[in-house]
Amino acid sequence: MKIFLLICWRNLWRHRRRSLIVISSVAIGIFAMMLSMGILNGVYYQAIDNNINIALGHVSVQAKGFRDSMTLRNSFVPDETLNRALAALGGKSKGYAPRLKMQGMLNSSESSKGVIIVGVDPARERNVSHIRSYISGPDSGTFLPDAESNHICISRDVAEKLDVVPGDSIVVMVQDKNDEMVGVGMTVSGLFQTPIDSINQFTAFVGIRRLQEMIGAGDSISEINIALKNRDRADETKAVIAKAVRDPSLAVLTWKEMAPYLVSSIMVVDAMMYVSFGIIFITIVFSIANTLIMAIMERFHEIGVMKAIGTRPSWIFSMILFESVNLGMIGLVAGIVISWIVIGILSKVGINFSFHFEAVRAFGSGAVIYPIMRWTDVAAGGVIVMLTTVMAALYPARKGARIEALEAITFI
Amino acid sequence: MEIIEVRDVIKNYENNGLTVAAVQGVTMRIRQGEFSAIAGPSGSGKTTLLNLIGGLDRPSSGSITVGGSELSGMTPKELADLRLRRIGFVFQAYNLIPVLTARENVEYILLLQGVEREERERRSAAILNEVGLGNEIDRLPKEMSGGQQQRVAVARAIVSEPSIVLADEPTANLDQKTGEALIDLMHRLNREKKITFLFSTHDKMVMERAERLVRLTDGKISQDRAEKPKGGTKSKSASVRVGFKPHPNRSRN
Predict the structure, then answer these.
(1) pTM beyond cutoff 0.90
(2) Which among B196, B229, B200 is positioned nearest to B212, based on CA atoms?
(3) Mean pLDDT throughout A178-189?
(4) What is the rounded average pLDDT of the residues A119-143?
(5) Distances from the Cα of B223 to the Cαs of B37, B216, B240, in angstroms?
């Protein structure tokens, strides 16, 4: 077998430049695929992380139906069993925090704006949400001081709409437990600007105790958000919590269930990308096939001799197929190595897409994208290259296998 | 005992609508262990006859039996197996696989036969040593002289210990001295290993050295005579090993 492999391998280097051109085309194709997939992965994973870190958490315990109707009716008071189960997560979780969410209206002397009022406990929220990190700049103020204070933290977009700055007062209007509208004046503590457009447009944070007091909700909350150290353990954690939840009206959801559009859009875009790369690689099929046909024509006499001395057609077929796969695999490895180096660097320094920020903001990924190289993409590249090279070799290999020994050895 | 039996073989080719009769009703028998030559001028049909015997071509009519196997009923795969296991080929233009070294070229045949690696390496090194190329086994064909390449081709042809070696004008590309040494080598292998050699040639030296000479004229046997091997006594191993002219373009250190 060694000699068979040697023939295939050495044949590749008989026309070094020609082989290198084919290998380069495969390598460049793979690099282009890995880089564009890497950027897309970066966009999506950053969007997922931002959504998890600002809004969703990895796992959430909430009343069934809360996501359809964000009212006080869909709230609950966590019992001891749930609290114990959450505490038992220990080192697996970074923390968990209660939130009370409801629709409300913010009014200033200039304007008004409908938002989701999110009651949070700032001390516990610190371990669950990154919202504090999005309050930056000298005029941005600070996050809420505590859960009872009469402060509100709004986005820069909302502040602009209401024409307020930190320290100004606005009126917060929400529906209380009796479905009566209540309005309370609050001081703007700080302004945030997250990468997620919907958070910036429609979210305001207040102290959870203050909100409960305003609407007479007692200890009711809308959800408990759990932040994990490892995103991939969401399903496992969900199962543990779900086992501890006795109240049948409660649901335990992972971030995938809370943001199904993110997951499905990643899958759709992945599939589309793989199909388009498959199409791009069809052009490489012709390049490889052309190279192989030229190689066979040049080795017409030699293949005839091989057949004359007893080589079976199936060997000739396999030899040409293997040469093609070799070409592709060398290109694949070269492409992966180049991708690994380039994406490795870009994943540290990032690519600034601020020139096209509107497009990336829709995904909530932020302006600087850090590409990610996934093993699934490498495997997909391997499959695409393998299929490409086998497809490219079929016709030349069949042609080679059918060479008539006598015709070939008398060919000058 | 006959190893090759050619009976009433006719081979016609179509060429631009014209029928060319390359072999016209040849009947001959070659016995096991013969050292024979088919001679004749260009176009006499000697290479065609050799190709027919080697199963590389099929006769228009008549029958050819090699080692008791009738070739006409064989499939291409069976013919490939016959060539692999029972017939060794030596071509005019050496026709070694250029990307393989001398040893790998010889080993290739054994690989096709499914011989284990260690056995392959042992046998190929031994046979190359036997043809006087023990120090050249790792050279590529392009690094060897024509005579050396042809000796590798002979080693390749006999490594699997075939019953017959068919050699198509093996000395045509060699100078006189190298050609003589090659024939010495083949003759020695013929005597020592009892391998049947059948040449096609128009080289007088080969004709003189053949034990039997079959002359073809216009595709027909015009003469078939057994000759005493003149110079067969020349085939001493020492003369085989030193009798090759170095390749003019090759420098040795």
Answers:
(1) no
(2) B229
(3) 92
(4) 90
(5) 12, 7, 31
Kindly list the structural domains of chain B, giving each domain's residue range(s) and its CATH number in brackets, ordered by start: 2-242 (3.40.50.300)
Rounded CA gap, B134 and A71, in Å? 93
CA–CA min distance A1, chain B (Å): 7
B contact test, residue of A1, A309, A314 with most B CBs within 10 A: A309
Supply angle C-alpha A133, A135, A139, rounded to 5: 150
Print burial letters for B96-114: b (CB count within 10 Å at least 16), e (below 16).
bbebbbbbbbbbbbbbbee
Whole-number pLDDT of residue A330? 94
Can you tell me the mean pLDDT for B31-59?
Answer: 91
Query: What's the average model confidence in pLDDT over B41-67?
Result: 91
pLDDT over 90, % of chain B? 43
pLDDT for A163 equals 93
**B105 to chain A: closest CA residue:** A3
Are A65 and A250 spatial neighbours (Cβ–Cβ below 8 Å)? Answer: no
CA distance A15 to A210: 78
Q: Where are the domains of chain A?
A: 2-50+262-409, 65-248
**pLDDT value, residue A285:** 87
Q: What is the pLDDT of residue A318?
A: 92
Is B107 in the A-facing interface, judged by CB distances under 8 Å?
yes
For chain B, the straight-line distance linking the first and the last C-alpha, in angstroms and rounded, comes to: 49
Residues 6+ apart with CB under 8 A from B73: none
Task: Confirm whether the ipTM is greater than 0.85.
Answer: no
Residue of B89, B109, B111 lying closest to A4 (CB–CB): B111
Provide the CA A28 distance to its chain's centre, in angstroms.
24
Dihedral sign, Cα of residue A40, residue A41, residue A43, residue A47: positive
* Nearest of A238, A315, A203, A270 to residue A41 by alpha carbon: A270
CB contact at 8 A, B49 and B38: yes
The amino acid at residue B253 is N
Strand partners, A104: A115, A174
> Each residue of A275-295: b (16+ CB within 10 Å) or e?
eebeeebeebbebbbebbbeb
Can you tell me which residue has the tokens 């943001």?
A259
Decide if A308 and B99 are in contact by the 8 Å CB cutoff: no
CB contact under 8 Å between A409 and B91, yes or no, is yes
**Contact between chains at A406 and B111 (C-beta distance less than 8 A):** no
Residue A50: C-alpha distances to residues A43, A60, A341 (Å): 10, 16, 26
